[in-house]
């Protein structure tokens, strides 16, 4: 399995050992869900965990959701959670957001982090200790954010990649949204997919029979292969708003592919452009 993962058994063993470590709940819901994960955190979370809202570490000025913030904003929020550059961060959630935080931390130069395999669902299913209420106040730390722009793709990069046909473009959305048979998930955003994109839905990379642990690298390779994805070419991952695209990148990393890029604007940006092609798969 990936070296970026930590199992529930190990986390339970090291909780409270005094190490410079922060356990971070990054659960999040799409706007259409009409609820907030902070309320879930108050109802129950891993003891000592802190909560980070994806909206608070996204660009507030962008017309596109969940876009990378400037380094100063990320550093301010993360430092305010008691995380410094030497702090080990253990990320977990109740769904599919942890890989996005993993990618964001790495984009800003922080590699001392792991994702809890199976996340909150596995922790709770095993009957492990739970706290309720808000997190205890954190002592702010200095966090220096150093961006790595080579990890991200912009709209122009994706357009050029499609035109050249030289890049493998992987889309993590559900098949219904990729095919254009279901709404985009965001009001006013068109449906469909980009020319040449390959659909590898994010949910395939979690094993529901194993408390939603990530699938093995071998299984991930099979999923990519069955979709016809050429992993020997440069790779760009995309999705609805740049969140689940990071799951594909996480699995690519487990397979030894470290040079992939994430299209940060993803479909939320692409779908709102007047001049971008948006393909709909015919129904049979």
Q: What overall form do the CA principal axes indicate? A: globular
Residue share in helix: 25-40%
Task: Examine the secondary-structure arrangement and name the CATH architecture of the largest domain.
Answer: 3-Layer(aba) Sandwich
Structural class: alpha/beta
How many separate helices?
10
For the record, the count of structural domains works out to: 2
User: Termini separation (Å)?
Assistant: 39 Å
Strand content: 5-15%
User: Tell me about the biggest sheet?
Assistant: 5 strands, parallel
CATH class of the largest domain: Alpha Beta
Over all CA atoms, what is the radius of gyration? 18 Å
Oligomer: single chain
Taken in chain order, the helices and strands follow as EHEHEHEHEHEHEHEEEHEHEH
């Amino acid at each position: 399995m990936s070296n970026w993962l930590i199992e529930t058994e190990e986390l339970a063993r090291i909780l409270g050992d005094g190490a410079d470590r922060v356990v971070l709940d990054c659960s999040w819901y799409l706007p259409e869900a009409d609820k907030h994960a902070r309320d879930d955190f108050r109802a129950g979370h891993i003891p000592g965990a802190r909560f980070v809202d994806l909206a608070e570490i996204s660009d507030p000025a962008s017309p596109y959701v969940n876009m990378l913030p400037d380094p100063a904003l990320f550093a301010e929020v993360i430092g305010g959670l008691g995380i410094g550059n030497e702090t080990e961060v253990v990320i977990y959630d109740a769904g599919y957001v942890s890989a996005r935080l993993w990618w964001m931390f790495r984009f800003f130069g922080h590699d001392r982090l792991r994702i809890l395999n199976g996340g909150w669902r596995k922790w709770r299913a095993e009957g492990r200790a739970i706290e309720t209420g808000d997190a205890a106040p954190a002592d702010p730390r200095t966090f220096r954010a150093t961006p790595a722009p080579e990890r991200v793709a912009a709209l122009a990069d994706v357009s050029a990649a499609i035109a050249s046909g030289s890049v493998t473009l992987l889309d993590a959305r559900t098949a219904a949204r990729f095919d254009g048979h279901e709404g985009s998930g965001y009001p006013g955003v068109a449906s469909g997919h980009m020319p040449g994109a390959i659909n590898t839905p994010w949910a395939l990379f979690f094993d529901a029979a194993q408390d939603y642990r990530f699938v093995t690298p071998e299984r991930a390779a099979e999923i990519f292969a069955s979709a016809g994805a050429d992993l020997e070419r440069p790779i760009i991952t995309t999705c609805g708003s740049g969140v689940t695209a990071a799951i594909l990148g996480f699995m690519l990393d487990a397979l030894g592919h470290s040079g992939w890029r994430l299209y940060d604007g993803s479909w939320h940006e692409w779908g709102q452009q007047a001049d971008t092609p948006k393909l709909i798969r015919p129904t049979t």
